[in-house]
Amino acid sequence: MSCDLPCLILNTGARMPILGLGTYEVKGSEKMHLIIDAALETGYRAFDTAAVYGNEADLGSALQDLMPKYGLTREDIFLISKLSPADMGPRAREGCARSLERLGIGGYIDLYLIHCPGTKWLEPGDVKNSQNRAQSWAVLEELHGQGAIRSIGVSNYTVLHLEELLHSCTVPPALLQVEFHPKLAQLELRTFCMEKGIVFQAYSSRGKGGLLSNSEIVAVADEHGRTSAQVLLRWAIQQGVAVLPPRPRPSVRENGKVFDFVLEERGMQRLFDMDSGVRFCKRDPTLVVGTTTAPLVIYRPILLRLLLLTGK
After folding, report:
1. CB atoms closer than 10 angstroms to residue 9
2. How far apart are CA 206 and CA 163, in angstroms?
3. In angstroms, rounded to a whole number, what is the distance separating the alpha carbons of residues 246 and 159?
4. Are 66 and 82 in contact (CB under 8 A)?
């Protein structure tokens, strides 16, 4: 794909822009059209949606209408969508087919994820969750082999869930998408992904807006003459973490301006020191039981921070 933004390379060889647009908050075809127009104009080429967002068709339609305006083709766009928790297991094939039909451009999806390790209507401790994860992944592998899905991955998985998947899969996950911000730095999970060649992607980089007025973040932003949102995105990007800021139209352009400044080590550390395991999203994947018996490595937080800061 052609893109002026920095890209990360997935294990399939696909190039994914490190900055994408999350569409979780975008409801309605008219609003989607306006936001995608602003995003394409700003330089966004990666777009994230999901079956549960209810806007796959609106996103596909907006891109279809607007790509010619900016001289773009389907190959210039990187589309991410996700399998609904209601379609896990026996209904996975139908769920994937619906996403492909709704998006409806080019006949393929660049990256398709299992949205979460649990299945709708099942208790977190139900062993059927594990069975449904395995069955869903087998479907994704098949569609990947057929070219309908270029890369496959997961969302909201823990180390336990990833261990389980890696023990049984034929095609390893290309990407993990999880909640990530200074109060939830996910050090163990990120290091595991680095070791396994799994790209790490953040949602809720702003803590669902709850971090924008945090005094530490505001102070760092003021020092750099930037907004809190820009600092939070830069903090992630500077660590090689892909981000998906979900913002209404006026902030799309603001969020795109995160590549022309650098946070110095002290500023990075100030945000690292905020890590306290706080989640702003209701979904807590640690409650969904994994079945792996593989031993887990307990990492020292200080060593982890050194690894992540240096990119080693």
Report:
1. 12
2. 28
3. 26
4. no
Report the largest interatomic distance among the alpha carbons of the chain, rounded to a whole angstrom: 53
Neighbouring residues of 147: CB distance < 8 A, sequence distance ≥ 6: 108
Distance CA 79, CA 132 (A): 24
Separation between Cα atoms, residue 18 and residue 9, nearest integer Å: 10
**Catalytic one among 24, 44, 53, 112?**
53
- Alpha-helical segments (H) within the chain: 29-42, 56-66, 92-103, 128-146, 159-168, 187-196, 215-224, 228-237, 249-255, 265-272, 301-310
Q: In this structure, what token pair is assigned to residue 263?
A: 């946070």
Residue 157 annotated in active site: no
**Cα(272)–Cα(256) distance, rounded to whole angstroms?**
23
Residues 175-223 have pLDDT tens digits of 999 999 999 999 999 999 999 999 999 999 988 888 999 999 999 999 9
User: Which tens digits make up the pLDDT trace of 91-125?
Assistant: 999 999 999 999 999 999 999 999 999 999 999 99
Q: Tokens 């800021």 label which residue?
A: 245
Residue 259, CA distances (Å) to 203, 204, 226 in order: 19, 19, 12
Which pTM value belongs to this model? 0.90
C-alpha to C-alpha distances, 117 to 38, 41, 88, 207, 282, nearest whole angstrom:
34, 36, 9, 21, 14
